[in-house]
Amino acid sequence: MLYPELFKSLEQVRWNMETDIPWDKFDASQLSDEQAQTIRMNAITEWSALPATEMFLRDNHGDSDFCAFMSVWFFEEQKHSLVLMEYLRRFRPELVPTEEELDNVRFEFDPAPPLETLTMHFCGEIRLNHWYRCASDWHTEPVIKHIYKIISQDEARHGGAYLRYMKKALVEVGDSASAAFAKIGVLMASARRTEKPLHPTNLHVNKMLFPNDTVQSRLPDPEWLERWLDEQIKFDGVWEKKVVDRILHNMSLLFERSFGTVQELNRYRKEIVARLAAAAVVPPVVIG
Fold this sequence. Notes:
The protein has helices at 3-12, 33-46, 49-59, 64-91, 99-104, 114-138, 142-173, 175-188, 224-232, 237-255, 262-280. It contains 11 helices and no strands. By secondary structure, it is an all-alpha fold.
């Protein structure tokens, strides 16, 4: 089981909201209304760890090790929302999200293949790590800059934990796990060729609620995410390349094979699919 080791390692680096955030360094002159609104939206978005956890526990019911790890992941992700709301409570109380707004991003996700979902969240943690690092650079107020740096480090550690579970699945499941991981890796690393970067918060997850079946669509301002990325923190091609390179680097570690481009990862995916197809061919039975 990975849970005991992961619990111990994450416990050793866990930050305290009262003592590790320099609240006394707040500089009101460095926080604009525009910046404060983005903090509000991220606080609500982070609350969606709640339905994601419910999804993980449901779809991985037979994996006690992974479900136990969810206790750590859920705690730390909810703390991200909490620290952003605490920042607003102290310095912009009129912008603290309402319980109704938080409730609105808690909705049931449709069942999905666990391995694909694991990979999607693994890549999502990598992307979120870079989004928050970029956001920290954009902000001018020192306390929120510090908060985003701390949160980004959590996201990186979560990505590392998910990678451990992916490695475990390769041993236990084999090529079918490899195919799932490579397929989602290609998808999540191909953002530059799509209209928008893919992240679990902007993917459709409940057919019955379409088109309001993404976390993003249920925010007070559904158009906020693209505006935050493109116009405010300016998450440009340089940052996007960092995300893609990091995904490819981790896929290389996972498969013990070097992938310099998405195309190389996709060729590997096709190899795995072909191997699975060949293994599925049943040889004819010879009688006599």
